[in-house]
Amino acid sequence: MATTPQSSPPVASKSTVSMMLGIDAVLIIIFAIIGVSSHDGDLGFLNIARVALPFMLPYLLLSVAIKPGRLIHNVFPAGIALWIITVILGPILRAILFRDSSEFAFVLVTAGVLGVLLIGRRSISTLVSRRGKNA
Fold first, then answer.
1. Could you read off the pLDDT of 58-82 as tens digits, one per residue?
2. Terminal C-alpha separation, the chain
3. Does some domain include residue 40?
4. Residue 15: how many CA atoms within 13 Å on its side-chain side?
5. Residue 102 domain boundaries
């Protein structure tokens, strides 16, 4: 049984990487808006930033650090690792920066929502980039 060598992911352009990181940032802001509004909170800029920032910082910094040109569309292992680390570091940064505690239920909901948004975005962009390559 012959196996084909696994090729490395294609390199995305800087503009594509920037656009995907921008989309990820918007998705994290949407996560914050959903969370704040579900608790009848103030949807002002500072309140949204207070929720989004602790998750956005680790996600975007780690995204830039892991060869984003090659891995911006990658679901596994890069996307999964980014998601898990963001879910772990977000509540920690939230406690450090804003002295906000995070109940276990909050962490579970955060993991689910960010998983759908961030892994979902990577899944969609993977499909789109593969279609473009095969067209």
1. 999 999 999 999 899 999 999 999 9
2. 29
3. yes
4. 0
5. 15-134
